[in-house]
Amino acid sequence: MSRPLVVSIPHRLGKDEAVRRLQSGLSRAASSLPVLSVDEERWDGDKMIFRVRALGQAASGHVDVADDHVRVEVTLPWLLQRFAEAAQSAIRSRGQLLLTKKS
């Protein structure tokens, strides 16, 4: 079993607004990346459980939303472990875009 990939993204939105923004974020991210498809996205309060597929490989994880940060934990199959650093960077970048306060 591979070690999960963990990304923490700070924000200043408060929990409710961060959840609101993230609820459509995974589907929008998948639509902009042709190699990524969403198999499952399920919200339970301020926690999202998800399963995605990239390059024919399934990855699963969850997103925990707190008042001042979002914690994303993804377990990648061994084949996608080679792309873990790029995935971590993409998750952080996309998350920051979603959670940046618009003026």
Biggest sheet descriptor: 5 strands, antiparallel
Our Rg estimate from Cα atoms comes to: 13 Å
Strand content: 35-45%
* Distance, first to last CA: 43 Å
Pairing-aware structural class of the strands and helices? alpha+beta
Shape: globular
* Poorly predicted regions: none
String of helices and strands = EHHEEEEHH
Query: How would you state the average pLDDT, rounded?
Result: 86
Q: Widest sheet: strand order?
A: 1-5-4-3-2
In which range does the helix fraction lie? 25-40%
| Annotation field: number of helices | 4
**Number of β-strand runs:** 5
Protein name: Polyhydroxyalkanoic acid synthase
Organism: Bradyrhizobium aeschynomenes
InterPro entries: PHA_gran_rgn
Pfam families: PHA_gran_rgn (PF09650)
Task: Tell me what the structure shows.
35% of the residues lie in helices and 38% in strands. The chain is built from four helices and five strands. The protein has helices spanning 15-22, 25-32, 78-81, 84-99, and strands at 5-10, 36-44, 47-54, 57-65, 69-75. The mean pLDDT is 86.
